[in-house]
Amino acid sequence: MSDEKGLKRRDFLSMATLAIGGFISVVVGIPAVAYIIGPARRADQEQNWIRLGAASKVELGTPTLFKTRIERQVGWIVNEEEISAYILTEDGRNFVATSNICSHLGCRVRWISDQEQFFCPCHNAIFGKSGEVVSGPPPRPLDQFEIKVEDGQLYILGG
Amino acid sequence: MVPQLGNWLDERMGWRSVWDAIFLRKIPKVNWLFTLGSATLFIAVLQGVTGILLMIYYVPTPDHAYDSVQFITTQVPAGWLIRGLHHYGASAMVILTVLHMLRVIFYGAYKYPREITWFSGVLLLLIVTGFGFTGYLLPWDQKAFWATTVGTRIASVAPGFGEWLLLVMRGGEELTALTLARFFGVHVWILPASLLILLSIHIYLVIRIGISAVPKRED
Questions:
Q1: Which residues in chain A are closer than 8 Å to B49, comparing Cβ atoms?
Q2: pTM > 0.90
């Protein structure tokens, strides 16, 4: 066997090794990525109308906190979770539902009635009555839920 | 670009000599049976990769083990594939390890100067069976539960220390949450760590001594 031929054989074998190795890596690698990111992709699908309580409980002109528990299935585990929203109405007919989750890093804000402001204890963020940023680090106003009233009961869209 | 980077790294790490020692070492004229060790190594790596992936969802407690395995198999994208590879890979490991050992026996490759390679290989076979035994319990279905009930009971008939061995394996009298947790711990940490150490010794010796030739009739 000449030197040149030996070199060719070696090149062929290293190329074949690379090709087969690459093929196996792809066959295992792509499903592995899908496997890891799978649950993240279908995280927020289902939104349902969640009943909060009687609309008559909302004080005029003051954000009122409503809490309710919902069942949520995560993977193979069914969890009870608490959902909270501040409901505001100025006229008793039109309602606004504001999330109590700070738009900065997800701590819970609370309504300080003396100052007529939402306050987040984590980084001293302050939001106004309708959720607009007054001061502090939040990048955007508090999120709002879609809300409806049926038979005097408040419902928000969430899940 | 790539050759320059290779040179740059070689100057600092000397990786080419390591590469040459592993992949460009001299070997005698041998046959396909001499690839059984590499095949075992390949499946071992695959078991490691798929095992790590399974751990992302698997929960080793009696109230979650079965459901988490079902979740992997039916809900997670490609979960059936990852679990299937790990499941059939386990059988492949045992078969390939034994075939590899038979080749070594029939070609007399365990003799001087390869005794240490041989004994590390025998221990590796024990570790592989340990992987199989502990892994079998983890799906926590009826088959797993009763197979481990029987398996640990078999261990208990060892003379003298049998009953004690059964208590240690089960973590008590019965097969419980403690059994599942310790089988899981052994399966994902103790055995892999032992495997890695012994495998390093085993492969280091294969590279250092070189592989044996096919023995001739007059040898």
A1: 28, 32
A2: no
